[in-house]
Write a structure and sequence with these properties.
Layout (H helix, E strand, L loop, with lengths): L2 H11 L5 E4 H12 L7 H10 L3 E4 L3 H7 L12
Parallel strand pairs: 1-2
Length: 80
């Protein structure tokens, strides 16, 4: 995990930040885990989310996708 991402997860575990993970990321994670390309799996991620209120799933709905395509610019911020 890149150091910047690890730092954000550490903040979330200490309840200093919130991480919202799009549901599509779980599909990608499952695929990569199945292929042995990453060192985690869906069960571990599910437990992480259940045990930490600062880490949340965001359902990827048609409405969410529509709203994302309305974004024309992403301002400078500390989101990783």
């Amino acid at each position: 995990m890149p150091p910047q991402v690890k730092k954000q997860f550490q903040k979330a575990l200490k309840k200093e930040a919130e991480i919202i993970i799009p549901s599509m990321v779980f599909a990608e994670l499952g695929y990569l885990s199945e292929k042995g390309r990453i060192d985690t799996n869906l069960r571990k991620v599910k437990n992480l989310i259940q045990d930490n209120a600062s880490i949340k799933e965001h359902t990827l709905s048609f409405s969410t996708i529509q709203q994302a395509f309305k974004i024309k610019d992403i301002p400078n911020c500390t989101i990783v």
